[in-house]
Design goal:
Elements lengths: L4 E5 L4 H12 L3 E6 L14 E5 L5 H8 L4 E4 L14 H21 L3 E5 L11 H14 L6 E7 L2 E2 L6 H10 L2 E4 L5 E2 L2 E2 H13 L6 E5 L5 E2 H12 L4 E4 L2 H11 L9 H6 L25 H4 L4 H15 L2
Parallel strand pairs: 1-2, 1-4, 2-3, 4-5, 5-6, 6-11, 7-10, 8-13
Antiparallel strand pairs: 9-12
Helix pairs in contact: 1-6, 2-3, 3-4, 5-7
Length: 321
């Protein structure tokens, strides 16, 4: 029997790499296009994965990549953009124009299945350009109608080894005795990257997933301050957390935007005005979400005695699952 073939756009990133691994385990042939093959070197050891250098923003290239594929999973996303109305050009290119091109290329290449990774909080009238561009990308996918079996997934912030969320705060907590915190009261429902990958894999195999928009979240809602406090606890670091008023936070973010790779932007802060929390069941298809506390200790503080204790406790909990 021939293996099914899937193309992962954005497959070399944090979430994409985990999805690639899960789909290889399920027997898919996985094609990961990337502008620079070196960025996807970690995908190469997967037994049924192939990495190719390609410009996925070129429509002809997309048609060539999709030829003979059974499915496409789009994981491309950016956190920062030059400003614009209703969203900046970098958000437009990654979140709106690329989904439009992907949908068109699926039709031209005869691809029947598309899973599109959006974001929890996507909203055409949202407070941030990021949220508005994500909503426009979803609209581009839905515009395919019945001609394409699409599924839209909306994850909350995603955690796991190699994430850019908890690891960011861990890095800051290791360096500084005090942490000025913008958006300290913002609410999140973090989802484990392996859970996201599981939903992607099951969506591709479940006919009833076509035409669905599903939120992906963890079992627990936290404020940003609670998450930072937890990271500090795992590290065994006593740190002064200083919540910033929005005006001060905006000034801080404006200064950060001057960096080549900013840690925070004013648009990120605007996103936090809306709670990043699921409106219903955290995961679809009857899946049970993984608690952050059973995973984070293993990669946030893995060099400490405290981490060894947490890891032992995690293994014990899983043994009773």
């Amino acid at each position: 029997m021939n293996k099914k073939r899937v193309v992962l756009t954005g497959g070399s990133g944090f979430i994409g790499s985990t999805v690639a691994n899960r789909l290889c385990e399920a027997g898919w042939e996985v094609l990961v296009p990337t502008r620079h093959a070196s960025r996807a070197a970690h995908v190469l050891p997967l037994p049924t994965a192939e990495v190719v250098e390609a410009d996925i923003h070129d429509p002809q290239t997309l048609r060539r990549l999709f030829a003979g594929a059974d499915a496409v999973v789009n994981l491309v996303g950016v956190l920062h953009s030059r400003p614009g109305t209703p969203y900046g050009p970098d958000f437009a290119r990654a979140h709106v124009e690329l989904p439009q091109k992907i949908v068109a290329a699926c039709g031209e290449a005869g691809v029947a299945r598309l899973v599109h990774i959006s974001a929890l909080g996507a909203d055409a009238n949202g407070p941030s350009e990021y949220q508005r561009s994500k909503a426009a990308g979803e609209a581009a996918v839905r515009a395919a109608g019945a001609a394409l079996a699409w599924t839209i997934l909306r994850p909350s912030v995603v955690f796991g080894r190699g994430d850019s969320f908890l690891n960011l705060f861990a890095g800051l907590a290791r360096l500084f005795p005090a942490l000025p915190l913008a958006g300290a009261g913002a609410r999140f429902q973090p989802v484990f990257v392996e859970d996201v990958a599981e939903v992607v894999a099951r969506s591709l195999e479940t006919p009833a997933a076509a035409g669905q928009t599903w939120e992906l979240a963890g079992p627990t809602v936290y404020t940003l301050r609670q998450l930072v406090e937890y990271v500090c606890e795992l590290l065994g670091k006593r740190r002064l957390i200083v919540p910033l008023p929005e005006g001060v936070a905006m000034l801080q973010a404006r200064l950060m935007e001057l960096a080549p790779q900013p840690l925070m932007s004013r648009d990120n802060l605007r996103s936090m005005r809306a709670d990043n929390v699921a409106s219903g069941t955290p995961l679809p298809l009857g899946l049970v979400p993984t608690a952050l506390e059973t995973v984070a200790p293993g990669y946030i503080a893995n060099a400490t005695t405290r981490a060894q204790f947490y890891a032992s406790r995690t293994r014990a909990r899983r043994g009773h699952g």
